[in-house]
Amino acid sequence: MGPSIAKKKKRTISLNLWHKGIILVAIPLIFEIFFISVLSWYLFRAEQEARRIEDSRNLILETEVLQRMFYDAGSALIGYDMTKNPLFQAQFGEAKAKILVQLGLLADLAGQNEVRRQNVKEISDLVQKQLKHLEEIGEKMDRDEFQTSSTFADLPTSINRFAELFEDLIRRERAIVAEAPEAESRSRAFVEQWLYMGVAVNILIALGLVPWFQLGTAKRLAVLMDNASRLSAQEALLPPLTGEDEIGKLDSVFHEMADALAQSTRKERAIVENAADVICSINEDLKFSAINPACEVQWGYERKELLGRSVVDIIFEKNDPGLDNFKQAIKEKKDGTFEIELCNKKGRPIDTLWSVHWSDAENRLFCVAHDITDRKRAEQLRRDVVAMVSHDLRSPLTSIQVSLDILEAGVKGPLPPGALSELKKLSGSTSRMVRLVNDFLDLEKLQSGKLDLQKTKTNLDVLVANSINAVRQLAELKEITFREEGLDIDFTADGDRIIQVLVNLISNAIKFAPERSEIAISGGITDGAVEVQVIDQGPGISLHEQENIFQKFEQLDTGRMPGSSGLGLSICKNLVELHGGRIGVRSQPGQGSTFWFRIPYEPEAPGS
């Protein structure tokens, strides 16, 4: 065996707060129950003793009353013997009845005490015997057979015995009564003793439970509260508490929470320190109180150069309206988003987008500044391209288109067949370029929010007829026919834009539909919206292509048509959504396609 000695682990009883609460209540309660039980028992004994003494007093009194009643009965009989007056005879009968009642009362007062019951029984037997003897004397008096000397000869002996029994009973009961003050004194002393002892034990129990509760609960709660203060001050926590009770578990969870918060704080600090955007806080004087290192990359300033410095110092134009947004956010203590042009360390302007949040707890403004210089340049470039397309492309192309139409019409004279054929090809290419430019400009207006709808009351049948007329020449080339259903619906919309949507959808259907096929155009009102469907018999569209078909520059791989810009369906989607509606497609490969769109049903035009 090695030198190491196996140590026995001490098993400790782990009490939770519920158990401790039970102990705090149960120990004093058990003692109080015991204390009250002892006092109640002794009070019951004292009450019994008091009742016994009271019974003794009553027994003495009633015994003396019985003695007087017996003497009264004898006196009445003697009076009757001397006077023969019936009144004395009635008094004897009444006294006899009272004596019998009194004997019953004495039997009740004797209760369960055997000695008392025996004495009362002897008295009762003797009294009843003497009453019977006196009755016999009375009867002899009535028959004139009464002889005083012989009849009353045995009365003295009976009366002496009667007196002895009375004296014995009264003496014993008086002894009990005489002990009453001493018994009462003993009872009082016993009660006082138990009261003092109960108070002393209660104090000892309290003195014992207080330190136990202090060490086991209150002190540990104080540690928990101290840890809460330390956590809020971002200080190290006290060592974990031992024990498996609620406080120990709560402290364990508290430490886990502190570790999680510390880890989260480290991650948050890492995110802030490594964020590409500038994250900072600004006090009420518009001075930087904290800032992340991104300011060195974005603005060219080191952190120490900006801390304590006013944001006004790095604004490119001192009258920039963004400065008022800062002041308003601080004054009204609210969140906001605004743009402001800053000046980097080299003196160059930087376009920034600020998101600010006011914190009442920190009494400062927390900000995220995003560099939008490239976005501003891209927006300006887009505006320049749109202006170039609008003025430098569409106008010349339109002029070329008009000139080609004039030449094709023979206004300048007839052209050779070969030249006319080339002229038609050139006219078609020019038309496609004009449509591409117009689609591009329309999409730009839609996405920039510059296209306004001119809603009026219109009829769906009229809109569909105009749309079909616009593409009829293309349909006739493929001998395609149209079937129209449920189109007689009056509603409010921008009729020209709805025609633009319909022309795009119908022309697409013509492009992909087989020759000599049919295209169905149906309408109806569904769930408070006008729904229009364009159904073709083309090759269908796969589920993957359906997901992206309404995006810009998206075209189907199947049956791709030359001259398509890929903007038509995207324009349709934007126009329908501008009306507050939706657009979609239902299709399976080889089973044709159904393009549909819905716009809210408004029977009356606004302001009508």
Keywords:
single chain; 608 residues; alpha+beta; de novo design (two linked rop proteins); Beta-Lactamase; 12 strands; 61% helix
Descriptive overview:
Helix 2 packs antiparallel against helix 3 and helix 12 runs parallel beside helix 16. This protein has 16 helices and 12 strands. It has helices at 17-83, 86-110, 114-142, 148-151, 155-178, 180-232, 246-274, 294-298, 303-306, 321-332, 373-408, 417-448, 460-477, 495-512, 543-548, 568-578, and strands spanning 278-282, 288-291, 336-343, 349-359, 364-371, 456-459, 481-485, 490-493, 518-526, 529-536, 582-587, 593-600. It folds into 4 domains: 17-178, Up-down Bundle (de novo design (two linked rop proteins)); 275-371, Beta-Lactamase; 377-444; 453-600, Heat Shock Protein 90. Helix content is 61%, strand content 13%. The radius of gyration is 60 Å and the shape is elongated. It has 608 residues and is an alpha+beta fold. The model is unreliable at 1-13 and 558-563 (pLDDT under 50). The two termini are 106 Å apart. It has a 5-stranded antiparallel sheet, sandwiched between helices. The longest helix has 67 residues, at 17-83.
Short description:
The protein has 608 residues and is of the alpha+beta class. 61% of the residues lie in helices and 13% in strands. It has helices at residues 17-83, 86-110, 114-142, 148-151, 155-178, 180-232, 246-274, 294-298, 303-306, 321-332, 373-408, 417-448, 460-477, 495-512, 543-548, 568-578, and strands spanning 278-282, 288-291, 336-343, 349-359, 364-371, 456-459, 481-485, 490-493, 518-526, 529-536, 582-587, 593-600.
